[in-house]
């Protein structure tokens, strides 16, 4: 099955957070991986993707779309997921890669890198959004998948926490921009810092709000 094909599954609306997982298992798939990314809309730092394989039927109370959770809750659930998951892979699309091949292709790169980090390898992918990746594995893209699928929600938390921690490290390496506070997104204080200081080495130089200040 090509990367652009998707299994003919899931004809009904989901009835619970493991609906998609249950339907894939019913069709004979045995190792499912959820994939999501964080940082696609930021002005600096990498886009980070995570791929997660969970045990069949696992309970992970509180796991949800990472955007709905507080930083403290995300950190707690990150540790829970890491302790309960069969495998976790993390991939990165650097600012340089984003500027060279665009954010969509860099996101695909990060997702594929996360996938290749899994052991065992899955036989079916559940991916948040509408972006497929270049793999022969069957894959199902799900809009708002981080709210509808437990496996994707787990991946969204791993990706978000991993990226947030990296942005705190970059804040120490590149002071003055406030990366630890806004994590690289285009808030007013970040835009003002770019105007005053110019872009840092980790800014995405092709993004609006940054490219205007490249000297």
Number of β-strand runs? 5
What is the CATH topology descriptor of the domain at 19-168? Nucleotidyltransferase, domain 5
Q: What does the largest sheet look like?
A: 5 strands, mixed
Into which percent range does the helicity of residues fall?
25-40%
Q: What is the beta-strand fraction?
A: 5-15%
Give structural attributes.
215 residues, Nucleotidyltransferase, domain 5, 14% strand, 5 strands, single chain, 8 helices
Write a brief caption for the model.
With 215 residues, this protein is of the alpha/beta class. It has helices at residues 19-26, 71-84, 95-101, 103-116, 145-148, 150-173, 179-182, 188-197; strands spanning 32-38, 47-53, 87-93, 124-128, 139-142.
């Amino acid at each position: 099955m090509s990367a652009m094909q998707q299994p003919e599954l899931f004809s009904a609306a989901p009835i619970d957070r493991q609906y998609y997982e249950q339907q894939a298992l019913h069709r004979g798939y045995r190792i499912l991986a959820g994939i999501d990314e964080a940082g696609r809309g930021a002005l600096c730092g990498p886009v980070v993707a995570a791929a997660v394989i969970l045990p069949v039927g696992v309970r992970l109370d509180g796991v949800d779309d990472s955007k709905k959770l507080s930083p403290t809750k995300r950190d707690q659930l990150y540790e829970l997921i890491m302790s309960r998951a069969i495998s976790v892979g993390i991939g990165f699309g650097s600012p340089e890669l984003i500027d060279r091949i665009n954010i969509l292709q860099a996101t695909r790169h990060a997702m594929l890198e996360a996938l290749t980090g899994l052991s065992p390898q899955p036989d079916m992918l559940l991916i948040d959004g509408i972006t497929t990746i270049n793999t022969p594995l069957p894959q199902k893209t799900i809009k708002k998948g981080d709210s509808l699928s437990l496996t994707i929600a787990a991946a969204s938390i791993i990706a978000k926490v991993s990226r947030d921690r990296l942005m705190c490290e970059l804040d120490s390496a590149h002071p003055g921009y406030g990366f630890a506070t806004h994590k690289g997104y285009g808030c007013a204080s970040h835009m003002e810092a770019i105007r005053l200081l110019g872009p840092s080495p980790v800014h995405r130089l092709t993004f609006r709000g940054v490219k205007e200040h490249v000297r």
